[in-house]
Every structure is written in C-alpha cells, then in structure tokens.
C-alpha cells in the first residue's frame, strides 16, 4: 500500500536534501524528519532534520528521500510545501503551510 505524503518537497528542496545526504560522513541509516514542536514567536515551530525512525512515525518516500512524520503531527502539516531558497536575501529551507492561521516574520513558526 502506498500512502501519499502529507507534505511536498520542491525541486530546490530535493536537490539540497540529496546534496546533504550525499556528503561524506552522512549516516545512511538516518531519514528526514519533518514535524512541529511547541515554541517560536507564533506558538509552534517546524522541525526539519535527519533522525532515526521512531515508533509512532509514518514513513514516506519522496523522490527517493526517506521521510518520517509523527502520526500526531500530520494534522498540522497536511498540504505543506517545503522549499529551499538559495538567493542573496534568503538562504535556507522555507515552509508554506495552508493550515497556519498566522506565521512569524522569519517563517519558521506558526499558529493554527
């Protein structure tokens, strides 16, 4: 059974993530974790990083990238797009979340 991931990764995000995964010393046992945690100026912050798969995680594969999301986080992340910007003014991962009622100026925290 194939389950569609609740989040999407843009071509820019996929390119940057694959570059990180291909770097020397990267632990190939790790997967990309996308999630949320309490905190930040708007109430919740995004989690994006490499981690071990844990009990209670949903597993997805997006363009060859193994992704885990805690089951309880799916409601906050459904429909979200993760992008990577590499411009002069902005550099890093960005989050476009249709579930956020408001976001902070830096774009890394949100309220529902």
List the helices and strands and how they pair.
Elements: E1 7-9, H1 11-21, E2 31-38, E3 44-51, E4 57-62, E5 65-70, H2 74-77, E6 80-86, E7 91-96, E8 102-103, E9 109-111
Tell me what the structure shows:
The chain is mostly beta strands. The chain has one domain: HesB-like domain (Hypothetical Protein Aq_1857, Chain: A, Sandwich). It is 13% helix and 44% strand. The chain has two helices and nine strands. The strands form two sheets. It has a six-stranded mixed sheet with strand order 4-5-2-3-9-8. Strands 1-6-7 form a three-stranded mixed sheet.
The CATH architecture term is Sandwich
The helical percent reads 10-25%
Largest sheet, described in full? 6 strands, mixed
Number of domains: 1
Count of separate DSSP helical elements = 2
CATH class: Mainly Beta
Give the end-to-end Cα distance, rounded to a whole number of Å: 31 Å
Please state the average pLDDT score: 84
Give the ordered list of helices and strands. EHEEEEHEEEE
Structural class: mainly beta
Unreliable spans: none
CATH topology assignment:
Hypothetical Protein Aq_1857, Chain: A
Radius of gyration over C-alpha positions, nearest whole angstrom = 14 Å
Largest sheet: spatial strand order: 4-5-2-3-9-8
Oligomer: single chain
> Can you tell me the CATH superfamily?
HesB-like domain
Overall strand count: 9
Protein name: Iron-sulfur cluster assembly accessory protein
Pfam families: Fe-S_biosyn (PF01521)
GO biological process, one term: iron-sulfur cluster assembly
Domain Core: 7-107
């Amino acid at each position: 059974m194939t389950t569609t991931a609740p989040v999407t990764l843009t071509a820019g995000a996929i390119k940057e993530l694959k570059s990180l995964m291909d770097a020397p010393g990267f632990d190939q046992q790790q997967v990309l974790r996308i999630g949320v945690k309490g905190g930040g100026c708007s109430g919740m912050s995004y989690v994006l990083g490499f981690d071990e798969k844990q009990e209670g995680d949903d597993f997805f594969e997006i363009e060859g990238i193994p992704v885990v999301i805690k089951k309880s986080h799916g409601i906050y992340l459904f429909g979200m797009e993760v992008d990577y910007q590499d411009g002069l003014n902005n550099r890093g991962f960005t989050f476009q979340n249709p579930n956020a009622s408001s976001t902070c100026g830096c774009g890394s925290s949100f309220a529902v």
